[in-house]
Amino acid sequence: MPHFPACHILFPTAVEGRHVAFFLATEEYVAKKFPKDSYFFTWRVPATCIFGINQDPRAELNLDFCRANHIQLCRRKSGGGTVFAEQSNLMLSLITESLPVEELYAEYAQTVAQTLRSLGAPVQVSGRNDIETLDHRKICGNAFYRMPCRNIVHGTMLYDTDLPLMLGALTPSSEKLTTRGVKSVRSRIGLLKDYLAISLDELRAHLIGQLTDRTLTLSDADMAAIEQIEQTYYDEAYLWGRRHNRRSIVRKAYIAGCGTIEIHLHLTHGHIDHIHLQGDYFETGEQRTSEAFSQAFADCPYTPEAVGQRILRFHPEQTVVGLGADQLAALLCQPSDQPDSELA
């Protein structure tokens, strides 16, 4: 069934400028609390870098620059890459009942793109999670994840942005930019203000008017419950993640249609005793990728034959959107002297 028009979530008090964690907590709360329906809301935040659930912020960000320029940090619970957001961006959140994530994302992205086209913006849906202009400049990046009985999609729409802050904060890998045919972050992005003759506030009002047809205002009790969930995002262990054992073997590749995957393997006596993934890939939501890989490769001899047998038996690659069994086998068992690669 179509998920638009959705129910527009309203806040009882002014929330502009609050930390990203508050709005991510709102998504969780709505998903857990409210009855079956589609819910949508928009938000704006101070300068913030928001990284995916499987990413290492130390590898994705210039942390000294972020600290010096008071750029906040937040880990979200969806996959995908790091995004820079600030007051001249518009953040979008959609909560629906559970259904295949590819189906939901396709509907969401096409609906948002069509709304922008109705305003005169020359945009199209591209790749696995982007809305871009016809000359291939990204104007809206999106990510999704699954909760019990619910899906959450959220996006960052570039109306305008502080390019020096964005370029100073983000440190994307050179192979990722090269693979996408881009020489810099600056050449990859587009700004809606260059294509639309309306303000950000007018754009926001138009999106809400087109994508929703009813409202629900949160109560003070709802706000208090959201703020409790918000605190979990500030936990240091969650924010920064686990530092990997320096003796780990690392296998890394960019896989078309999937994204960048970096696999850390820790071996004891030639057997895998720990495996961990990082990257900007998306999870299918059937099972947590970390759990699937840990179960599949527990105490597995680190040989191409044994690894291949485990993949055929457990199929952990099915928890990652766009990843095939042969690609996973090639990535895990590439020679130790082979550089980071791109897999078709």
Could you characterize the architecture of this molecule?
The protein has 344 residues and is an alpha+beta fold. The chain has two domains: 6-240, BirA Bifunctional Protein, domain 2; 249-343, 2-Layer Sandwich (Enolase-like, domain 1). The chain contains 13 helices and 16 strands. The chain has helices spanning 20-33, 57-60, 63-68, 101-118, 163-169, 174-179, 185-188, 200-211, 220-232, 236-240, 289-297, 304-314, 325-332; strands at 6-10, 39-43, 48-51, 72-75, 83-85, 89-97, 123-126, 130-133, 138-147, 150-158, 212-217, 249-255, 259-268, 271-279, 300-301, 341-343. The strands form three sheets. An eight-stranded mixed beta sheet has the order 7-8-9-10-6-2-1-11, sandwiched between helices. A five-stranded mixed beta sheet has the order 15-14-13-12-16. A hairpin with a 3-residue loop joins strand 7 (123-126) and strand 8 (130-133). The two termini are 34 Å apart. Mean pLDDT is 88; it is low at 177-183 and 337-344.
Short description:
The protein is an alpha+beta fold and 344 residues long. The chain is built from 13 helices and 16 strands.
List its salient traits.
344 residues, alpha+beta, 2 domains, 34% helix, disordered C terminus
Oligomer: single chain
**Alpha-beta classification:** alpha+beta
CATH architecture of the largest domain: 2-Layer Sandwich
For the biggest β-sheet, the strand order reads 7-8-9-10-6-2-1-11
Q: Main β-sheet, in a few words?
A: 8 strands, mixed
Number of β-strand runs? 16
